[in-house]
Design goal:
Blueprint lengths: L1 E3 L51 E11 L4 E11 L6 E7 L10 H4 L11 H8 L7 E7 L7 E4 L2 E10 L4 E11 L3 H4 L4 E5 L4 E6 L5 E2 L2 E2 L3 E2 L15 E10 L3 E4 L2 E2 L2 H4 L2 H11 L6 E4 L1 H8 L6 E11 L4 E4 L3 E9 L2 E9 L6 H20 L7 E6 L4 E4 L2 E4 L11 H16 L16 H18 L14 H4 L19 H20 L2 H15 L6 H10 L6 H9 L6 E11 L4 H15 L4 H7 L4 H4 L6 H4 L7 H12 L3 H8 L3 E9 L7 E7 L4 E6 L10 E8 L3 E6 L14 E2 L4 H12 L3 H8 L2
Parallel strand pairs: 1-25, 2-14, 21-22, 22-24
Antiparallel strand pairs: 2-3, 3-8, 4-7, 4-11, 5-8, 6-7, 9-10, 10-19, 12-13, 14-18, 15-19, 16-18, 17-20, 20-21, 23-24, 25-26, 26-29, 27-28, 27-30, 30-31
Helix pairs in contact: 7-8, 7-9, 8-9, 9-11, 12-13
Length: 765
């Protein structure tokens, strides 16, 4: 403890930034150097402007699933409507299946090395003999004439005879086929799974048809090549699709079934109607016993399932004779949405117990934080291991052992992936961001919403991502292994951490620590509703979150999204002061105690001469000064104090008599990211007090500052970030006094750290 003078002088000093003269490098500077200039298409508030437009692409398709040869055949007509203010000289179409061609860019740019051993899958990947990719039979214009086109790997340019003017449309047809990839051998977001025991296939089919690319006001055509990681940028449109499959297959897809009476039995129709009115439990449209019976056969006949979908950006479907099918109703006002699941017997008992209920829970929870789910159905399809999303339908892993048992990890992994993939209906299927460019805009936002939904599913749900402390190991990793969140999808390092974990954690910190739930939830919902069925950019998100909340967040988005800085705030020093009351009856005894505690002498000599001093033998020589010391209270001292008290006003007397404790704390920013400062003080009587300070506390000096705290009670412990909510990467310097850190830091370390290898595995996707 130190003593302060009774008159306190407060000095306001400007912090010094490490920057060149006349160049603002403040972490709090506005993001005008990073964000595009607002215009008539996109406003400075982050909303669509008065001239905002978007294109439309409508599809009419006839698809045939060849179960004998594992192929897809398609005939489709695309009608493209130009709503842009300018004419278009050509159109760009995505051919995603061409990624699987032997001469694709994806194969040509693969890298790797030879380790101490090589697996069969690694060798197969090097050989790669799968005959993948679209086989284009013909392309014709709306007059039935051959249409000129050019294929550049995964992109096809339609060469128009004349520019397509604003408001005009252009129709063209494509006939094609391709070999379906076996996901177990060649991987993939879609494909087939083979069940050897029954000689059966389960198909989850997506990116299966030539799809229009996005043209917008931001970058014209989004015609970046599909290399496998950067997902999709697609315009909205209406789909009319007929899918022909073996007659004993059950087919599920994007959209609503138009000919249920033709493809379902009377019993199945009745069950489907029952499901539309049951909001409590799933109803089986196809039972497990019926699915087992069907998977024993192999029909040579075919059925055509007819689906329609309005205002969707994509289309996918599933097909198998192995499918169990259940459904239940989810109410949104007067609307009824069908939550459904398709799964083989290999998915039970997990899937019949959880899948459709998780779908319904996800729709309800996401809707609460964004907008009511607008589509008529939401489907979860069981696959082995993968998770992938499309409008109204998604493919999800989570398979029990062959005897029906499952681990806790399998259970919660399945629930988590269903929540995540169903949640993608909101981001990016409706809030239609550009996945080819910015993975975080759908994966990060969706992972954040997944965390909220998991926590509402079950108390203490073991969420993998979301809490701040779980991202700390990644943010503390080597900087050369990291890139900012604002990195193109194909160039991201540590994909799961960067595109999923870090942005999800950033949003959670924004909600819980920086903005507060009320401000965040309103702003986030505003963003979702502004951009549903539209094409937002990162700037639209950043600007909306500020505009709708009234919170300056440039410092946060700049630091978290545009840098690889980490959070590491340290308690560099704590000084304890009490005001000098100048009352000799109070201060001199205190000074005596301090002197005795701090006195350092030669105790050996003191003992040697004890009782042997000359004065000890002649006590009559003792006078005033021998009987009193510097800490003796004299009448003069009391007279002086009385005069001092008379000079004070009532406020000053109150301050002097309060016996307050002043704690001067020095903070240091060692990681680079400025963040709120959160403290917990523990007092001598065992009580605690939390103190929260916004990130703007770093405004005058981003590297270090001191702050004084005043308490009536004596502090015995100080903790920085006591609730692990800022993603601080080094917790060892967050305690005062030093000995306090042991138990708390060990607890933190045991929960989140360990060896670097284990940390990186934990932080991986």
């Amino acid at each position: 403890m130190k003593r302060a003078f009774p008159l306190i002088l407060i000095l306001f000093g400007a912090g010094l930034f490490a920057q060149s003269p006349n160049i603002n490098k403040s972490k709090f500077r506005q993001m005008k150097d990073l964000l595009p200039t607002p215009n008539m298409y996109r406003t400075g508030a982050g909303a669509p402007g008065s001239f905002y437009y978007q294109q439309q692409a409508n599809y009419k398709m006839k698809i045939r699933l060849d179960d004998e040869n594992q192929r897809i055949y398609g005939e489709q007509t695309i009608t493209y409507i130009n709503n842009a203010p300018e004419s278009l000289e050509y159109l760009w179409v995505q051919l995603d299946q061409n990624m699987r061609a032997k001469d694709s860019q994806r194969q040509l740019i693969k890298t790797g090395d030879v380790g101490s051993s090589m697996s069969a899958s690694e060798i197969r990947d090097i050989l790669y003999d799968f005959d993948g990719g679209f086989k284009i039979d013909q392309v014709k214009n709306q007059k039935g004439q051959e249409q000129s086109y050019t294929i550049n790997y995964t992109m096809m340019r339609i060469n128009l005879d004349k520019p397509l003017a604003k408001g005009d449309s252009f129709s063209f047809s494509i006939s094609w086929w391709y070999n379906i990839n076996d996901r177990a051998k060649y991987g993939g977001r879609s494909g087939l799974e083979y069940f050897e025991d029954e000689d059966n296939y389960l198909y989850t089919i997506a990116q299966f048809f030539p799809r229009m690319a996005v043209y917008n006001d931001v970058e014209g055509w989004q015609n970046k090549q599909f290399l496998g990681r950067g997902e999709f940028a697609l315009p909205f449109g209406d789909y009319d699709v007929e899918i022909t499959a073996p007659a004993d297959h059950v087919v599920g897809s994007t959209g609503t079934l138009q000919n249920a009476e033709e493809v379902l039995s009377e019993k199945q129709l009745d069950r489907l109607e029952e499901a539309r009115n049951n909001t409590k439990d799933p109803v089986f449209i196809v039972t497990e016993s019926e699915a087992k019976s069907a998977e024993g056969g192999s029909s040579e006949e075919e059925k055509t399932w007819h689906f329609k979908a309005k205002n969707v950006r994509d289309f996918a479907f599933c097909s198998s004779r192995k499918f169990i099918w259940d459904a239940m109703a989810v109410k949104f006002g007067d609307r009824t949405v069908l939550a459904m699941s398709y799964y083989p017997k290999e998915g039970n008992p997990l899937w019949e117990r959880y899948s459709t209920r998780v779908v319904a829970h996800t729709l309800k929870t996401y809707s609460k934080y964004s907008f009511d789910y607008p589509y008529p159905v939401a489907i979860s399809v069981h696959t082995d291991r993968i998770g992938m999303e499309y409008p109204m339908i998604c493919f999800n892993g989570g398979r029990p052992a062959s005897d029906g048992t499952y681990s806790k990890r399998t259970k919660y992994g399945m629930i988590g992936v269903i929540i995540h993939e169903v949640g993608h209906n909101f981001f990016p299927m409706i809030v239609n961001s550009d996945e080819r460019q910015w993975t975080w805009m759908d994966e990060g936002l969706n992972t954040f919403m997944q965390f909220l939904t998991e926590q509402e599913w079950e108390e203490n749900y073991p969420s993998r991502r979301g809490p701040a402390y779980k991202i700390a190991p990644y943010m503390n990793s080597e900087k050369e292994d990291m890139v900012p969140i604002m990195t193109n999808s194909e160039s991201i390092l540590q994909f799961g951490n960067n595109a999923y974990g870090k942005p999800a954690t950033a949003l959670n910190i924004l909600r819980e620590t920086v903005m507060g739930r009320e401000l965040f939830d309103y702003a986030f919902k505003t963003y979702c509703r502004r951009w549903m069925f539209k094409h937002p950019t990162p700037a639209d998100f950043f600007r909306t979150m500020e505009d709708a909340s009234g919170v300056d967040l440039d410092w946060f988005f700049r630091g978290w999204f545009y840098t690889t800085d980490n959070v590491d705030i340290a308690l560099k020093g704590v000084q304890w002061y009490k005001l000098d009351t100048e009352n000799p009856d109070v201060e001199k005894p205190r000074e005596r105690e301090e002197a005795q505690n701090e006195f350092i002498g030669d105790k050996r000599n003191q003992e040697q001469f004890k009782g042997k001093h000359y004065s000890d033998a002649h006590p009559q020589m003792a006078d005033f000064y021998n009987k009193n010391d510097d800490f003796t209270v004299l009448p003069y001292d009391r007279k002086k104090y009385k005069k001092f008290r008379q000079s004070l006003n009532d406020e000053e007397k109150r301050y002097l008599d309060a016996n307050w404790n002043f704690y001067e704390i020095e903070f240091e920013n060692q990681g680079g990211l400025v963040m709120p400062v959160i403290l917990r003080f523990t007092f001598k009587d065992g009580s605690t007090k939390d103190s929260r300070h916004p990130a703007e506390i770093w405004l005058k000096n981003e590297l270090q500052f001191k702050k004084v705290f005043l308490f009536e009670k004596e502090v015995v412990k100080i903790e920085l970030d006591p609730f692990l909510e800022t993603a601080d990467t080094d917790f060892s310097d967050n305690f005062w006094p030093e000995e306090v850190k042991a138990s708390r830091f060990d607890l933190y370390r045991s929960r989140n750290y360990g060896s670097r290898k284990n940390r990186m595995q934990q932080a991986g996707e």
